[in-house]
Write a structure and sequence with these properties.
The chain has 1 helix and 4 strands. The protein is of the alpha+beta class and about 100 residues long. The chain has a domain of about 70 residues. The protein has a 4-stranded mixed sheet with strand order 1-3-4-2. It is elongated. The termini are close together. This is YbjQ family protein. It holds the Pfam family YbjQ_1. InterPro entries: UPF0145_dom_sf, UPF0145_YbjQ-like.
């Protein structure tokens, strides 16, 4: 599956727009503030990476349900909530491209 932030894919022709798809994920473990700042930032970064991959997996799964082979116009939003949970929301347009 092709995933891109652009609205077109160089070398491919979009033949059908199938709908907007999303993938949202949040970490289940609250990040402890008792870390030193460097360890805290490393923990936040690692947590966001894991949550982002889960959100992308959900986006791909939702696109596949629409029989898409690509998602264009992807937007990624990352939020650290007031309770120190990392949340990632990804939105894009599921499309069918000629292969």
């Amino acid at each position: 599956m092709i995933l891109t932030t652009t609205n077109s894919i160089e070398g491919y022709k979009i033949i059908d727009y199938l709908g907007i798809v999303t993938g949202v994920a949040m970490n289940e473990n609250k990040l402890a503030m008792s870390f030193s700042m460097s360890k805290y930032y490393k923990a936040v970064s690692e947590s966001i990476d894991v949550v982002k991959e889960e959100a992308f997996k959900k986006l791909r799964d939702n696109a596949l349900k629409l029989k898409a082979n690509a998602v264009v116009g992807i937007k990624v939003e990352i939020e650290l909530t007031t309770h120190n949970y990392a949340m990632v929301s990804i939105t894009g347009t599921a499309v069918k491209v000629a292969v």
